[in-house]
Amino acid sequence: MMEKLLVVDDELHIRTTIEAVLGSSDLQVLTAADPVEAERLMAEENPQIVLLDIRIGTASGLQLFSALRRRNPRVLVIFITGHGSAETAIETMKLGAFDYLLKPLDLDRLQASVEQARQTCRQMYAPAALGMLASDDVGSDRLIGNGPGMQSICRMIGRVAPQDVNVLILGESGSGKDLIARAIYQHSRRSQTAFVRVNCSAFSEVLLESELFGHEPGAFAGAEHRRIGRLEQCHGGTLYLEDVADLPKSAQAKLLRFLQDGEVQRLGGLELLKVDVRILASSSRNLEHLLGEGEFRQD
């Protein structure tokens, strides 16, 4: 599927630069200089990702953001903002924006943010089909089998998906935990909101906490700007924690606070932020063994 990205900015050089940097054979970049053109392209082209300036001439990007989300609740919006309006952009994260970028644009940061959004889109839109593989379906995103075991899994997915409860998925590597998580999301009441995946084994302890909870400037070496964590970013949606057994104890404690109170605190910050996120988690490790060794919190 050709992915589409819409750039909404009244500055021509911003639009042309982004189009030149991001345009490729598998990503179509559309551009709009004003909200009217943006809404037309949104209706006609249905882009999955939008890069949106907070100020579009005299128009408000925040109002356009609300209109775009009403049209497509799953659209991922990355805000572009001048230094003076960074706080406004941060507030929009609580409303469901995917990310924000400061002007002048850091092109590496731009590419990384858009690639992250594209990966999220693939998780959100790729169907997690359940059932028996046909002979020509090898390698497709399907859970294989129609025996009693698979029927039991389908029944469990059907039971837990509509309930707004957190879910832990256990199984060996390659057993289809990711597909089960995606199936739960796609059959849930949050299926029209964000689905964000974090691999807990892919980060160091500090970077994982920053990834999940965000950080304030100066929270650790190299933390020059405020970062919005995945939990804030996923407000209203579903966060999938892959390899949750690899969470360090400090992150486990913070995650427990969120699970109990629905609150997160950025690294180096004092403010407790209310966040509405459903957690799906998976692990291929023996959690009972980890509990016995004191590597994983019992609560």
Question: Care to describe what's here?
Answer:
There is one protein chain. The protein has 299 residues and is of the alpha/beta class. It folds into two domains: 3-125, Response regulator (Rossmann fold, 3-Layer(aba) Sandwich); 148-293, 3-Layer(aba) Sandwich (Rossmann fold), CATH 3.40.50.300. 38% of the residues lie in helices and 21% in strands. The protein contains eleven helices and 17 strands. It has helices at 12-22, 35-45, 61-71, 86-93, 107-125, 148-160, 177-186, 205-213, 230-233, 249-261, 287-292; strands spanning 3-8, 27-32, 49-53, 55-56, 59-60, 76-81, 99-102, 129-130, 142-143, 167-170, 195-199, 214-215, 227-228, 238-242, 263-264, 273-274, 278-283. The strands form six sheets. The chain has a five-stranded parallel beta sheet with strand order 2-1-3-6-7, sandwiched between helices. Helix 2 packs parallel to helix 3.
